[in-house]
């Protein structure tokens, strides 16, 4: 009986601590998966695909990394600064930002799919996904078993 409870304790400890280490996802792949999901959704509505932009993606990635590292809280902090940097390159009519996070303890479904589905379930996030935009960038960052996502939408 003692061995059985020891085994259960070790299994519980592994699941609590180890799954975050085992379920690491490539953040670049997560970003590309969200782009694919967003453009697939837009296409189903007869909307044009959003084009990927590296400058926007870098800004999104930096924001997600700052959240993941605990430098800032989960928020849109610094959005005005990101807009200012983008505006130096693009004369934009409108810029919106979606942020989200997923705790991927079990690794059952893709964090990208889960955050995308959550965004579609939220009115303001859905409006950004379905909005009249041309360009996008997405940044993903992980911390343990939690993944943070930032997506910026731009209409030139």
Explain this structure.
With about 160 residues, the chain is of the alpha+beta class. Helix content is about 55%, strand content about 20%. It is built from six helices and four strands. The protein has helices spanning about 1-20, 25-45, 55-70, 80-90, 110-120, 125-130, and strands spanning about 50, 95-105, 135-145, 145-155. The protein has a four-stranded mixed sheet. A hairpin with a 2-residue loop joins strand 3 (about 135-145) and strand 4 (about 145-155). It is globular, with a radius of gyration of 18 Å.
Largest sheet, described in full? Answer: 4 strands, mixed
* Overall outline: globular
Please, how many helices?
Answer: 6
Radius of gyration: 18 Å
Strand order of the largest sheet: 1-3-4-2
Characteristics:
alpha+beta; single chain; 156 residues; 4-stranded mixed β-sheet
SSE layout and pairing:
Blueprint: H1 2-22, H2 27-44, E1 51-52, H3 54-69, H4 79-89, E2 94-103, H5 111-120, H6 123-129, E3 135-143, E4 146-155
Parallel strand pairs: 1-3
Antiparallel strand pairs: 2-4, 3-4
Helix pairs in contact: 2-5
Offer a concise description of the structure.
The protein is of the alpha+beta class. It contains 6 helices and 4 strands, in the order ααβααβααββ. Strands 1-3-4-2 form a 4-stranded mixed β-sheet.
